[in-house]
Amino acid sequence: MTVVYNLKNVVKQRVSDDGIGFRLVVPDIQISAQENIALVGHSGCGKSTLLDMLALILAPDESEQFDLHPVGGKDDNIGQLWKRSRQSHLSQIRKRHIGYVLQSGGLLPYLTVRENIELPRKLLKLPDDDSINSLSRVLGIHRQLDKLPGLLSAGERQRAAFARALSHRPSILLADEPTAALDPITAQKIMAVVMEVIRGLKITLITASHDWAHVYKMELRTLRQESEPVADGRIYESRFSDG
Ligand SMILES: Nc1ncnc2c1ncn2[C@@H]1O[C@H](COP(=O)(O)OP(=O)(O)OP(=O)(O)O)[C@@H](O)[C@H]1O
Ligand SMILES: [Mg+2]
Fold first, then answer.
1. Each residue of 67-124: pLDDT tens digit?
2. What is the CATH number for 101?
3. Is the beta carbon of 229 within 6 A of some atom in ligand 1?
């Protein structure tokens, strides 16, 4: 199976105004095509930071290796692209190959659900086809397509956010606590449907989750914070590895 992400000694440091800082270290992680991964760890351990780097939104400070080889795409040295400030190249890779669902869904409130879902396809100038309708049907939001997101339930909004992240048929889906705002039963229902869709579309899923029991139920490979962050002066270091 193709290795989609290959990260070695990737480091991101964030220091706030009071000088107290946080350092995320990814010593060695490979993620293969069609793997389903959960990032697990306590609040503040760096799950969103890691997802933002995997989404090519956030630049690492250091990376011995940060390669991305999306299915159907080219092999790219992401570390080098960041070092050379190739933002537009990074953004092209992101738009074409990655879908990202945020905790809050992130739907644009002034566009209908259909327009929201269509947006990634429009940005890529992809032709209209049946993907919006078929995805909406599978995710159970086909009756909501002409409404504004504000008129949907929280669960329906998250389903719509998944439909939007998948409409351009990315091979990688990143999701940051996509069901955290929902009750456990709704959350499980949504994730069960999403898992079915991503298996059908042969997508690599990487999701952050607080909910450990839920993660195990879905039989995801977990990448977890190795231990409590260790203090190095005023910097707290958090490391992620298989576990
Ligand atoms: N823009 C920023 N500037 C400075 N520090 C930041 C910034 N964003 C996050 N941090 C810090 O980086 C650390 C990791 O944050 P991150 O959001 O990645 O954690 P998380 O694991 O996603 O937490 P949660 O489970 O609460 O979502 C935290 O200590 C946070 O305060
Ligand atoms: Mg987070």
1. 999 999 999 999 999 999 999 999 999 999 999 998 888 899 999 999 999 999 999 9
2. 3.40.50.300
3. no
Name the residue at shortest CA distance from atom 7 of ligand 1: 14
User: What is d(CA 38, CA 47) in angstroms, rounded to the nearest whole number?
Assistant: 10
Q: If you write DSSP's letter for every residue of 96-134 in order, what string do you get? A: HHEEEEBTTB---TTS-HHHHHHHHHHHTTPPP-SHHHH
Measured CA to CA, the distance from residue 41 to residue 238 in angstroms comes to: 10
Tokens at 48, concatenated? 């969103």
Query: Is the CB of 49 inside a 6 Å radius of any atom of ligand 1?
Result: yes
Domain residues for the domain of 141 are 3-242
Tokens at residue 237, please?
A: 């270091």
The answer to pTM > 0.90 is yes
Q: In total, how many domains does the chain have? A: 1
Q: Coil, strand, or helix at residue 19?
A: coil
Structure tokens at 15: 């220091």
Choice from 11, 14, 215 to test ligand 1 binding pocket (greatest atom count within 8 A of CB):
14
